[in-house]
Amino acid sequence: MPETIRVLVVDDEPMVCAHLRTILGSAPDIEVVDEAQDGAAAVEAVVRHRPNVVLMDLRMPGVDGLTATERICTMPDAPAVVALTTFDADKYVLRALRAGAVGFLVKSTPPQDLIGLVRVAADGHTVLSEEAKRRLLAATGGEQSARERAVGLTRELTEREIEVLTCLGRGMSNAQIAARLHLSEATVKSYVSRMLVKLDCENRLQAGLLAYDAGLVPR
After folding, report:
1. Predicted confidence (pLDDT) per residue in 68-118, tens digit
2. pTM for the whole thing?
3. Is CB count within 10 Å lower at the N or C end of the chain?
């Protein structure tokens, strides 16, 4: 995690931006480097400021947050994008996660939780509570095409890779997976890196969702 976490706040409501800036600015290790009111400005701000974390509202006029997330996540050394939403989980959130977002937060997240979760995102981890995961999985229940794609992709994995993927679907860290499968953390990290390529996933969260889609982890 960087010594100072550089955050870009993206929301079309100035009051929301001001609220998030106030909360995050109270943390000694977080700096809000800029605000943007639409997706196009967000992409430009990422290029200009190179933030570590982007808090991205998904529903904005003009270029929406989903489109901006897709563009940002394809950049070299892309920042961690965390979707901001008023709703606990919906199709917009699911599409943002599939585009490469590392998680999502509801705008009513308590201040101290928000600060802690921004640190989690900056450290390269998934920002997704168990309750959020439950709601998200409920939202994916009817996507037959996603299930078929996931099953097809997992057929290319080895037995050991399937075991690691199943652990990712259960939200386990590399250390927890290593202990469960009697492997070193370095070996687990290597498995995860190879699987992300095989499965065409941007991050661990996408791989974990794919494990659910493929039926490796019960909903």
Report:
1. 999 999 998 999 999 988 765 566 777 888 888 888 888 888 888 899 989
2. 0.70
3. C
